[in-house]
Every structure is written in structure tokens, then in C-alpha cells.
Amino acid sequence: MVKGDCSLPKLGLSNSDYEILSQQVNIIFHLAATVKFDEKFNIAIPINVGGTKEIIDLCRACVGLKSMVYISTAYSNCHLKEIRECFYDPPFDMDEDIINYLCTADEATIELLKPKILDKWPNTYTFTKSIAENILRKTAADLPISIVRPSQVVATMKEPIPGWTDNIFGPAGAVIGYASGVIKTGVNNNSVSQDIVPVDLVINFIIAAAYIVGIRTKLSRRPFSVEFVKPAMARCRKTPFTLPLPSPPLLMCQIPGVGHIGKGNLYVVTALEGTN
Asked: Which PANTHER family does this UniProt record tie to the protein (predicted)?
């Protein structure tokens, strides 16, 4: 375990720890984020946006990186009526100047500009997640990265024990509020489905995503070629079928014309000889 801070350059890691991670880490799960919906810009942006940029830099530093999974949210583009498994354009490209301004401007100015900055996004959490996804799309498309977008994460279904949770956000907080008698009333539309998912299922899916990306990347980097059949052909010549056929030849070439000549010699001529 190493000590770090996602809001700081190089993730707040010491030079020695950063070097150790870059040499020994193969799989990265980027779950660190502030999930407070109305978090201030000067807190949410350095963690949710800046932290993602730093993770990308760490990925590039890792000599044996096989897979990185970024945990976003199903609501990163919640202003859309239909959300597909693809990238969407954020409200604007957030370059370093904009990030620095939003992190350093006085609170009164930020509050005045907040509705214009958020645009159609309802809060800073979904806004910063959308920005982070776009950063991954634009700056990390060449890396073995996947994005997982869970909906409302709730207590465990099975593992490590049923009902385990470590926070009171979202549905868990509402249940605790009702159970304790603190929340007396609420507004609910019974015709609307609640998109919730147990946290242990989310974790299982994240692990599976890392595995799939790692496998696909490995296969794409080392694809099969026809060379792999040569050992099989050698064994066929060594142990041929017990049929009255000649030893099986194998002519492989890249020029179609040569291939057609080979077909004529091996199939047509052989057939004519067989008729004599």
C-alpha cells in the first residue's frame, strides 16, 4: 500500500513509489472520486478530472500495463433521453486554463457562473464524470482502457455478506433516513424504474472488464498467422492418413497468380495423370 492523493500532481506519490508502481503494476482500477453531487468545483475538478489525467500519465509510465478500468457513472450524460454505450461530447473541452480557473476563482464568482458552466448537467458530479470520459477518449484511445458506468450502487447482495455498505449516499441514505424516523415524507413516481445495482455485482463486472480488455489487447497485439499451421502439416507428413493418397503438400503464397499455377499443377495435372 502506498500513500497518495488524486488531486495532486503524480497522484501525490513519492518518486520512489511512482517508480515502483510503473515497474510492477499491470492492471489499474480507477475508482477514486468525490461522489458528493453538489461538491464545489475547486474540490470536484482536481479529484474527478485532474485525478483521471494523472492516472492516464501513470498508465503510460507502466512498462507492463495490460488493462485500466475507469469507473464513471450511468448518469454522466443524464440529460439525454437515451444513453448508449458510446462517448458523448461534454459541454466543452476542459483545457488546463479552464481547470486552473475553476479551481482558483473565488466562490462567489463560481456560484454566479455555475448554471452556465454546468449547462444541462444537474450537478458537479455528473459534470466532472462527463469531462473525465472525454479526456479518456481524446488522450488515451491508444491504451487498453475500458469505462464502466454503474447506476445507483447499493449494498451488497451476497459478498462479503448480504447488506454490507460503507456509506449513506443515494438509496442507502434514504432507507436509513426512513428507518430512523428522520425522513417523514418523500416524493416518488411509482411508474419510474429505480436503476440500482448491488456493489458486489459492480465489482465483479469491473474485474471482468479488466480481464476482457487485457485479453483483447493481447490478441490484437499478437494475432495468429498461417505460420501456426506449419507444425501441424509437419506432423501430417510424419503420420499420414491410411488412404491411397500422396503425401499432403501445402503451397502457401501471397501472389494470387502463383497460387492459381499451383492449383493447376497439384489438382488438375494430378487428376489427368490419375485417368491414364
From this structure: FATTY ACYL-COA REDUCTASE-RELATED, MALE STERILITY PROTEIN 2-RELATED
